[in-house]
């Protein structure tokens, strides 16, 4: 798969996640966030299970070696990071505003290249740095261009951004070393579902009636936003870098605003439209500048 194709798929992932915000916002009326997250990812695991089975049969037919315990452990780490980042965001929303949460979660576009350099000693193409700042500025404007007073919830949301950055980086590393992205996706969804449904009874109501009441939202957030979009991410990140992936997936913010306007009658202010333009400018820069000015292989990590 070409890098441009992989980045286009990650753009689709951002769009699907943006639409998923509509389902996630309406689902919180009948069901708690942790229980919703657990059930949602069980639905995602069921959706991906046929692809994982097909992938396993194909690997056996081709004589490929089975996955090692280390690879299975890596998949479990991804599921744990996925749940931890989402849980931190939900806890943060208890004491912070949606505006603060949207912006602070988006800071992962800066955390990803910084952590890649610090932890992996890999240097992305120079255009990633201004593009990340431009994307962050776009998310800031899309959030209204202002933050209310910082609270404990904001610290939880920053933790969510760091954990999600770690998930993006880890996924990029593990998926390149494992030839079975569908199995990886299924395992991380199952782990996330188990953790969520294990913790939920201790902190919020849990019952079959709640699942039935939120069934449409669970189906969309689980199968489409979860099963399909996260699996596309697992497949596409094999062919691009984590910093570039973070910028393309950050389009969930403008897509969320767009679908919120279409389905929830929310208004996008003029400053938000400018923010969307900045985000898409950053995307064009990340995609086109490397074609015009290839990075030096001696100092820059390229896919």
UniProtKB/TrEMBL annotation:
Q: Which Pfam families match?
A: EamA
User: Is the 4Fe-4S keyword given for this protein?
Assistant: no
Domain called EamA: residue spans: 8-143, 153-285
Any transmembrane segments, and where? 33-54, 75-95, 101-120, 127-149, 155-175, 182-203, 218-236, 245-264, 270-289
Keywords from the UniProt entry: Cell membrane, Membrane, Transmembrane, Transmembrane helix
Source superkingdom = Bacteria
Q: Which GO cellular component terms are attached?
A: plasma membrane
Database matches in InterPro entries: Diverse_Substrate_Transporter, EamA_dom, EmrE-like
Q: Does the keyword Iron-sulfur apply?
A: no
Q: What is the topology of this protein in the membrane according to its UniProt annotation?
A: Multi-pass membrane protein
* Main localization category: membrane
Which compartment or compartments is the protein found in?
Cell membrane
Q: Which PANTHER family match?
A: EAMA DOMAIN-CONTAINING PROTEIN, OS03G0707200 PROTEIN-RELATED
Protein name as catalogued = DMT family transporter
The organism that produces this protein has a lineage beginning with: Bacteria, Pseudomonadati, Pseudomonadota, Alphaproteobacteria, Hyphomicrobiales
């Amino acid at each position: 798969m070409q890098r441009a194709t992989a980045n286009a798929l990650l753009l689709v992932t951002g769009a699907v996640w943006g639409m998923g915000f509509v389902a996630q916002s309406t689902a919180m009326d009948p069901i708690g966030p942790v229980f919703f997250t657990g059930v949602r990812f069980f639905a995602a695991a069921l959706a991906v299970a046929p692809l994982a089975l097909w992938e396993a049969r194909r690997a056996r037919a081709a004589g490929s070696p089975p996955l090692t315990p280390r690879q299975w452990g890596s998949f479990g780490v991804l599921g744990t990071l996925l749940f931890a980042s989402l849980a931190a965001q939900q806890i943060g929303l208890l004491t912070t505003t949606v505006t603060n949460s949207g912006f602070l979660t988006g800071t992962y576009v800066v955390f990803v290249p910084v952590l890649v350099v610090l932890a992996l000693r890999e240097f992305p193409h120079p255009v990633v740095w201004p593009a990340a700042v431009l994307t962050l500025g776009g998310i800031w404007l899309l959030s209204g261009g202002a933050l209310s007073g910082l609270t404990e919830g904001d610290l939880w949301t920053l933790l969510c951004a760091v954990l999600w950055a770690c998930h993006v980086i880890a996924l990029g590393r593990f998926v390149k070393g494992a030839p079975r992205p569908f199995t990886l996706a299924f395992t991380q969804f199952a782990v996330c579902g188990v953790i969520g449904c294990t913790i939920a009874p201790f902190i919020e109501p849990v019952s079959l009636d709640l699942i039935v009441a939120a069934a449409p939202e669970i189906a969309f957030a689980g199968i489409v936003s979860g099963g399909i979009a996260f699996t596309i991410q697992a497949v596409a990140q094999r062919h691009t870098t984590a910093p570039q992936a973070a910028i393309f997936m950050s389009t969930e913010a403008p897509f969320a605003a767009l679908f919120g306007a279409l389905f929830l009658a929310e208004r996008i202010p003029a400053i938000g439209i400018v923010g969307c333009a900045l985000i898409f400018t950053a995307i064009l820069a990340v995609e086109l500048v490397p074609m015009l000015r290839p990075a030096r292989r001696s100092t820059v990590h390229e896919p």
